[in-house]
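Run log // design_07
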């Protein structure tokens, strides 16, 4: 079990971020009797997934939608699958753009290197 500070440190985010995800109903940490948040390994695993979705440009609204579907149970599997497939397509599109940009940059870098020699 982890305090909010320990969880934030383990995930490389701020405690503010964890509170924000809680406010947005993306995560529901357990609570100690005194009200302090407590995170389990399962919470951290879920948050690692959430952070990857965010890192790959999934809007918070879509992450919230996915989290809500997950909470609703197995009958939402098709909707969750479709949401993740759409996001994967978005990532593939990003990779295509990045690859093309990388090629253009490599050509420009080679041009500068030739000019400097």
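design_07 sequence
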């Amino acid at each position: 079990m982890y305090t909010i500070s320990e969880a934030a440190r383990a995930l490389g985010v701020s405690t503010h971020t964890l509170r924000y995800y809680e406010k947005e109903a993306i995560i529901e940490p357990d609570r100690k009797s005194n009200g302090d948040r407590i995170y389990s390994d399962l919470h951290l695993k879920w948050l690692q997934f959430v952070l990857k979705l965010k890192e790959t440009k999934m809007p918070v609204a879509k992450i919230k939608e996915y989290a809500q579907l997950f909470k609703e149970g197995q009958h939402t599997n098709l909707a969750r699958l479709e949401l993740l497939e759409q996001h994967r397509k978005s990532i593939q599109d990003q990779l295509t753009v990045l690859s093309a940009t990388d090629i253009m940059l490599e050509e420009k870098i080679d041009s500068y290197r030739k000019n400097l020699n």
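The two ends are 58 Å apart (CA to CA).
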